[in-house]
Amino acid sequence: MTEITPARTFTGSHAIDITDVRKSFDGKEFVLNGIDLKIPRGEITVIIGYSGTGKSVLLKHILGLLRPSSGSIKVLGNEITNLDNNQLTFLRQRYGMLFQYAALFDDMTAIENVLFPLREHRRDLPKSTMVELARERLKDSGLDEKHFNKQPSEMSGGMRKRVGLARALALDPEILIYDEPTTGLDPVLTEMVDNLIVSTHNLKKGTTSIVVSHDLFAAFRIADHVAMLDAGRVLLYGTPDDFLRSDIDLVKRFVAKGVHRELERK
Predict the structure, then answer these.
(1) Between these two residues, 52 and 226, which has the higher pLDDT value?
(2) 177 Cβ partners below 8 Å, 6+ apart?
(3) What pLDDT shows up at residue 260?
(4) φ, ψ (nearest 5 deg) of residue 128
(5) Residue 105 · residue 155 · CB < 8 Å
(6) Structural domain includes residue 4
(7) Domain shared by 90 and 209, yes or no
(8) 167: domain range?
(9) Is residue 1 part of a domain?
(10) Among 34, 168, 191, 259, which one is most buried in terms of CB atoms within 10 A?
């Protein structure tokens, strides 16, 4: 059986190392067509691209929800394409995930939502310790204590995002993933979420943050590195400045559209 590196012991420079990953669902067309991407440990990387370029499929591979047709995916030093379902479940405890619309349990309060992963995966902890951890995570995410016992229907969109983030932080993850965190939000709430991502990253030193987004200028505000996908490949990987200086036609058009949207917001 493949051994998994213990939590908080990986010291490599790249939290995720993807090499020549290809994925076809029908054996003919490739949704991922030779992805090469190294995601630095302890930094914020934003994955962008038009719809249909492979962002969601790549994310599912990183999470181990899909297996590639060929290629290598190493997460915290572990070749996840070789892991069985039990090993993947164990490794996923080192991820935190903020879903696109927070995906809170409607019949649970804010604190109960955050307690859920602790009850599932940290049954060794006393109940009082779990509650204290959940309260700390909610405070870390910026939710006022007076909202801890509210259900999602009683919370604003911004509050639900904060609860979703607190739940993602519950197990003290080494990798924190945000799936389209600002989709459908107004400009004020978008800026709040962007600031929340940065403040959380700064609070949790050493955590690797991965943001999957279509919003280029949100990426520019928060990213250390940006990877743009096109046709199942990495078209450009670099800093925000690299994108602004790029001569690649598709990148220039994407940047231009992003500028236009940003001007409309203002």
Answers:
(1) 226
(2) 59, 62, 63, 95, 96, 97, 98, 168, 209, 210, 211, 212
(3) 45
(4) -65, -35
(5) no
(6) no
(7) yes
(8) 99-172
(9) no
(10) 168
**159 and 203, same domain (yes or no):** no
Residues contacting residue 105 through CB under 8 Å, at least 6 positions apart: 112, 113, 116, 152
pLDDT tens digits, one per residue of 112-140: 999 999 999 999 999 999 999 999 999 99
- CA dist 97 and 73 (Å) reads 18
Q: How far apart are CA 238 and CA 250, in angstroms?
A: 15
Burial call 60-70: b when 16+ CB within 10 Å, e when fewer: ebbbbebebee
Domain count, the chain: 2
CA angle 212, 32, 34 (to 5 degrees): 110
The reply to whether 145 and 266 lie within a common domain is no
CATH number for 14? 3.40.50.300
Could you say which of 172, 191, 223 is where a domain stops?
172
Nearest to residue 225, comparing CAs of 16, 62, 64?
A: 16
Strands (E), the chain: 14-24, 30-40, 44-48, 70-75, 78-79, 95-98, 175-179, 208-212, 225-230, 233-238
The structure tokens listed for 13 are 């420079």
| 88 shares a domain with 190 | yes
Assigned domain for 184 exists: yes
What's the distance, CA 99 to chain centroid?
A: 8
Distance CA 265, CA 123 (A): 46
Q: What digits encode the pLDDT tens for the residues 168-184?
A: 999 999 999 999 888 77
